[in-house]
Amino acid sequence: MQTPSSCKTEARRLIVTGQVQGVGFRPFICRLAHELNLSGWVLNRTGTVEILIQGEPNRIDRFMDRLIKNAPPLAKPTLASWQTAEPDDLDTFSILDSIAESASAIHIPPDYYLCGDCLAEMSDPNQRRYRYPFINCTQCGPRYTLIKKLPYDRLNTAMSEFELCSDCREEYENRLDRRFHAQPLACPLCGPSLTFHIAGEKTIPDTGKALTACIEALRAGAIVAVKGVGGYHLICDASSVAVVRRLRERKQRARKPFAVLLPWRGQEGLVAVMEYAEPGPEELTLLKDPLRPIVLVEKRNGSPLAESVAPGIAEIGIMLPYSPLHHLLTNDFGGPLVATSANISGEPVMIDEDEVERRLSRVADAFLHHNRPILRPADDGVFRKIAGSMRPLRLGRGCAPLEMTLPFTLQEPVLAVGGHMKNAIALAWDDRAVISPHIGDLGSRRSQEVFEQTIDELATLYGISIKKVIRDAHPDYRSSRWAEQSGLPVTQVFHHHAHASALAGEYGLFETMLVFTWDGTGYGEDGTIWGGEALLGKPGEWRRAGSLRPFRIPGGDKAGREPWRSAAALFWECGREWQECPFPTELLKKAWQHELNAPLCSSAGRLFDAASALLGLVSKADYDGQAPMELEALSADGGPGPMLPLAQDENGIWRSDWTPLLAMLQNEKLSKSERAGQFHASLAETIRGQAIRIRTTHRIDRIGLCGGVFQNKRLTELAIEYLKQEGFEVYLPERLPANDAGISYGQIIEACSA
Amino acid sequence: LAHGNGGRFMRELIEHLFAKYLDNAWLDTRADAAAMPFDESDFELMITTDGFTVDPLEFPGGNIGSLAIHGTVNDLAVAGATPRYLSLNAFIEEGLEIAVLDRLIRSMAEACRECGVDIVAGDTKVLRRGQGGGVYFAVTGVGQRNRSINLGIDKIQTGDCILLSGTAGDHGCAVLLAREQFGLSGTLKSDAASVFPVTRALLDLPGLRFMRDPTRGGIATVAHEMASAVAGTVKLVETAIPINEQVKTVAEILGYDPYYLACEGRVMAVVGAGDAEEALKRMRGAGCSEAAIIGEVQDGRTQVILETALGGERILEELEDDPLPRIC
Ligand SMILES: [Fe+3]
Ligand SMILES: [Mg+2]
Ligand SMILES: [Zn+2]
Ligand SMILES: [Zn+2]
């Protein structure tokens, strides 16, 4: 069966790159070599894997083929190069110690779910890790949140303080074991444990008892702060109206939707999901994906979830257990659990036991701690299906740091510090960009600390030295001020240019296109607040071709939290009054007339706010995005809606006038749902109208939609439909959030394309 | 008021207005300079100078005349001095109603009496119409300070407490409303007043490190000065900062942070933690019933943090202008 010539020993040296660290790749190589009866070694050099493989040439061919094809689910290897080598005097295959070097080809894996093998083992009473909340293997478990430095070895992780017991060590050293070199490896004897602390009462240090006590407390209606992988959650019974109300009172969050953690039930784990929601196939696939994000899924009528879990919106954020601890909690509890990030509004999720006990003492009744340190926060990722694809609204645990390949090569490493709200930073060097997990709103002390920690640690982990900082043009963003004080050369990028370039960069589009960048606010080229712009051009060369009729927003940032202000301002701008305004406006209107803290804006986001307030939905927002979300949830098909007049201003910019929307929104012959529907339809029609008008003078085939407004499914899907009818190709972000989380990546594309 | 040609008109203006109201033992309108006694064995001489412009000239609780005296006296007082003598430069815009000027100078005189200071030298210039906002004052103040007093922003230490002698932002808010002709219906008044009674009460407190009157930029701006001086974090506590309900409401409506609104009759004092309660007692004893311990100096980066009612820790930025919106 084998030709004599192929029987002689050959050796090859392979270099493998891609996502190959912390994903069980070396053990896999080892097993593969063993199966194929090949000898040699594998070596981790920070970022790349080097292999010497020797044996019969046709076996080596099979090895090289299966190396890519059969790689473990989390690994994404690329065979970068190979060459023949001198065969060595080796009779086995071994894993050599890692070599640390300052190569830039490092990949930091995100935190992973609990794999099926470990889940089965944890559920088996005959296993020594039966019900052990920190079980993991090379195919699962935490990574990003516990790596101190590279190379990724146990001593360089938060697990370094846990010495392996002899059983664990045997598994760790056995190349045929799926725990071979699983760095966070642990068992009840040698690994982390749980502690349950009832505030002001007692502490239960034993893992099993702590878990039991926690379940009892949850059943009794307690709110428990539970330490997970990337931070603490506040967890409580999601089927109890009273318990959810208590959480809302204590968190002072009247209406912010809470995510729900459901038990993993049935073969596919999805049985519980079907009880509480009506997911489509894309949502189901993502729910059980190793990313294990929060997925927005349509609510199911009559589900036992308390309506107050996500009031006013049609969807519910669902998450399936991602860590062994969450599997145990949900399984033992048996019902749906609210699992909302333990933080104070807008701040990054808390990771420190003392801080949680101190700052959430008035929110949580009890605390479920564990002693595996979380080195840096990673909030849950959030996804929503828009226009046929699952798109991130927030990058977090499981999906970040996110790697993107740049469409160009950088001379020196740069840092992009992103926006102010929903901040995420990005590092870029060579042809790579790495986007951090969600950090938060930078106006708080802790956000700023996490922002700086993330910059420092990502730069250190990837071994790069930042030479330039890119920031938003807004002078008062915390990130802008940080950049100015960094001592490094700074480049400014306009907010909406960054949005447009983020989209162009994601799809590698560097020819003239038109990008609608619609969001809440951003500092524009003319010193006014932009937010409803159509930018024509390509990265490095955007110019404003379309916009909305400008108006002044009374109270500046206050308008971002209080939609009634935008509603009143639209009337004032037309020389009228909003008669039904729920708040006294005399003083505010005078300030507005005197242009006192009433900046000029062309924001589409504020139009959504105004519509929401005019329909009596949200006049003061409890959380960011509430007004447009409730407006979208209310809307039903109400026909086309009024056409917004389009005319060129003195600078040649096509501006759509929102005035006709006011009469429509006040037209009581239409139901509120129809009015909300017409509002969306009018704006989608506005996008089409501007695109067509601009196409008459500029050759454009491609339209992009980017910015926070395009998290609105109804508007986005309608706009795409209309644009496609006109023969345009339409692009919408898919790997990065459309909101300001994508700004940092866009800043890199914009600043480095010029 | 007419620009006139100097001479007789100016003499009359000075005699009938300034000299009449501001008369005291030292003021001699015919002299080129005034001579003042001073005991230099125990005291050192303290001098301050300030220019005053305000729109509108008159506002609830004061006017530019009294403000010029209070502002100057307060700068001496927070430095630990006893204010004694002032000099006054008045720049009057052609066209200003004499009746208005009369009111301003009368309040000025009243403020001097109340503060126990005398204007001992002065000068008056009339500016052409359109060159000034009605009237400007430039005031130089002289005071004396006991040589044993050792205050300074560089004396602030980590762990110190920050006190505020009364509600924050009243002056800024009152002037804002008066300026924009909002048809103020409430009773909000400027807090403009001398803070000397308060500073005098604190002076011999061993833990007293530093005092400042939070004028332009309000308490947040002074907090920033403190933070940079100590290269640390100044933490203010939202629920501890006394704020007039009306100021709260107006600031809320207009979208301003009251911490940035000016005060003209308040003291921010930094005191060693051990003396904070005593300092508070003394402030209250000096008539400041709303005085409060509003924060502390902490280790950490140079920044000002506001601990919110919910336990959040908001960064209070250094601001110059109306803040541009950042909420996306
Ligand atoms: Fe934006
Ligand atoms: Mg002054
Ligand atoms: Zn596993
Ligand atoms: Zn063990």
TrEMBL record, chain A:
<keyword id="KW-0436">Ligase</keyword>
<dbReference type="InterPro" id="IPR036046">
    <property type="entry name" value="Acylphosphatase-like_dom_sf"/>
</dbReference>
<dbReference type="InterPro" id="IPR011125">
    <property type="entry name" value="Znf_HypF"/>
</dbReference>
<dbReference type="Pfam" id="PF00708">
    <property type="entry name" value="Acylphosphatase"/>
</dbReference>
<dbReference type="InterPro" id="IPR017968">
    <property type="entry name" value="Acylphosphatase_CS"/>
</dbReference>
<feature type="active site">
    <location>
        <position position="44"/>
    </location>
</feature>
<dbReference type="InterPro" id="IPR051060">
    <property type="entry name" value="Carbamoyltrans_HypF-like"/>
</dbReference>
<dbReference type="GO" id="GO:0016743">
    <property type="term" value="F:carboxyl- or carbamoyltransferase activity"/>
</dbReference>
<dbReference type="Pfam" id="PF22521">
    <property type="entry name" value="HypF_C_2"/>
</dbReference>
<dbReference type="InterPro" id="IPR055128">
    <property type="entry name" value="HypF_C_2"/>
</dbReference>
<dbReference type="InterPro" id="IPR017945">
    <property type="entry name" value="DHBP_synth_RibB-like_a/b_dom"/>
</dbReference>
<dbReference type="Pfam" id="PF17788">
    <property type="entry name" value="HypF_C"/>
</dbReference>
<dbReference type="InterPro" id="IPR004421">
    <property type="entry name" value="Carbamoyltransferase_HypF"/>
</dbReference>
<dbReference type="GO" id="GO:0051604">
    <property type="term" value="P:protein maturation"/>
</dbReference>
<dbReference type="Pfam" id="PF07503">
    <property type="entry name" value="zf-HYPF"/>
</dbReference>
<keyword id="KW-0862">Zinc</keyword>
<dbReference type="InterPro" id="IPR006070">
    <property type="entry name" value="Sua5-like_dom"/>
</dbReference>
<dbReference type="GO" id="GO:0003725">
    <property type="term" value="F:double-stranded RNA binding"/>
</dbReference>
<dbReference type="Pfam" id="PF01300">
    <property type="entry name" value="Sua5_yciO_yrdC"/>
</dbReference>
<keyword id="KW-0378">Hydrolase</keyword>
<dbReference type="InterPro" id="IPR041440">
    <property type="entry name" value="HypF_C"/>
</dbReference>
<protein>
    <recommendedName>
        <fullName>Carbamoyltransferase HypF</fullName>
        <ecNumber>6.2.-.-</ecNumber>
    </recommendedName>
</protein>
<dbReference type="InterPro" id="IPR001792">
    <property type="entry name" value="Acylphosphatase-like_dom"/>
</dbReference>
<comment type="pathway">
    <text>Protein modification; [NiFe] hydrogenase maturation.</text>
</comment>
<keyword id="KW-0479">Metal-binding</keyword>
<feature type="active site">
    <location>
        <position position="26"/>
    </location>
</feature>
<dbReference type="GO" id="GO:0016874">
    <property type="term" value="F:ligase activity"/>
</dbReference>
<feature type="domain" description="Acylphosphatase-like">
    <location>
        <begin position="11"/>
        <end position="97"/>
    </location>
</feature>
<dbReference type="GO" id="GO:0008270">
    <property type="term" value="F:zinc ion binding"/>
</dbReference>
<comment type="function">
    <text>Involved in the maturation of [NiFe] hydrogenases. Along with HypE, it catalyzes the synthesis of the CN ligands of the active site iron of [NiFe]-hydrogenases. HypF functions as a carbamoyl transferase using carbamoylphosphate as a substrate and transferring the carboxamido moiety in an ATP-dependent reaction to the thiolate of the C-terminal cysteine of HypE yielding a protein-S-carboxamide.</text>
</comment>
<dbReference type="GO" id="GO:0003998">
    <property type="term" value="F:acylphosphatase activity"/>
</dbReference>
<comment type="similarity">
    <text>Belongs to the carbamoyltransferase HypF family.</text>
</comment>
<dbReference type="InterPro" id="IPR043129">
    <property type="entry name" value="ATPase_NBD"/>
</dbReference>
<keyword id="KW-0863">Zinc-finger</keyword>
<feature type="domain" description="YrdC-like">
    <location>
        <begin position="208"/>
        <end position="398"/>
    </location>
</feature>
